[in-house]
Amino acid sequence: MRPTDPVAERMLMVVLRLESAPWPGAMRAYGAALLALAIRCERAPAKGEIYRWFVRAAGGALSHRDAARRECLHDAFHDTVTCISGRLLRFRAGLDPSRRPNLRSMLVAWIGWRAKELYRSRRWRHDHRRVPYRVDDRPASSRPDLAVELDEVLALLGGADPRRRALRLVAMGCTIAEAARLTGVSRQAIYRIREALRAIVEVDGS
């Protein structure tokens, strides 16, 4: 049997009740309730209360006729619950006196966004495995200086170095963040090797 947290459950109910209170009069109390819940949700049993409440309140948001997208929705949901303390704090930071908050809608939107990101990433990896990207072919050139520069570019894009694989992903259309996530390389390292590539290929206009 999964552990429960009656205190977290009561805190969550306070947050939900305040969403129906006069707004923005309840904004200060709502922010305080979110902060208390975020701190409580650093504990696993409290996260379990968020998990159970969301399944009851918005479980339909995790459904999709496509199995791959449904899997991404469930993975995104678990990611969100795992990091729920930070998500609640970000929600609190964005409270707006002119707009009544809705925790359920916020989580549904966040899970949907995260699921789309996961789906794109997995789809890209699947396609990449099926169609390997080649960096060893280059057009013939009658200019030796360009040939030398192109050899240097290909050297930066090729090889087993994770930084080079990350740069290759960027060259194929990935964002810096996606390339970093897929290869385990820091964004700063990708920026540095990209600058090295630019130093080779930039043409001096003088």
What does this structure look like?
The protein has ten helices and no strands. It has helices at 6-18, 27-40, 44-58, 67-82, 84-93, 103-130, 144-157, 162-171, 176-183, 187-201. It is elongated and about 60 Å long. With 206 residues, the chain is mainly alpha-helical.
Mean pLDDT: 80
Q: Which descriptor suits the 3D outline?
A: elongated
Tally the beta strands.
0
- Stretches where pLDDT is under 50 for at least 5 consecutive residues are 130-151
Number of helices: 10
In oligomeric terms, what are we looking at? single chain
Element order: H for helix, E for strand:
HHHHHHHHHH
Largest sheet: none
Percent of residues in helical segments? 55-70%
What is the radius of gyration?
Answer: 24 Å
Q: Give the strand content.
A: under 5%
What is the end-to-end distance?
73 Å
- Helix/strand structural class: mainly alpha
What are the defining features of this structure?
206 residues, mainly alpha, 0% strand
Question: Brief description of this entry?
Answer:
The protein is mostly helical and 206 residues long.
What's the helix and strand layout?
Elements: H1 6-18, H2 27-40, H3 44-58, H4 67-82, H5 84-93, H6 103-130, H7 144-157, H8 162-171, H9 176-183, H10 187-201
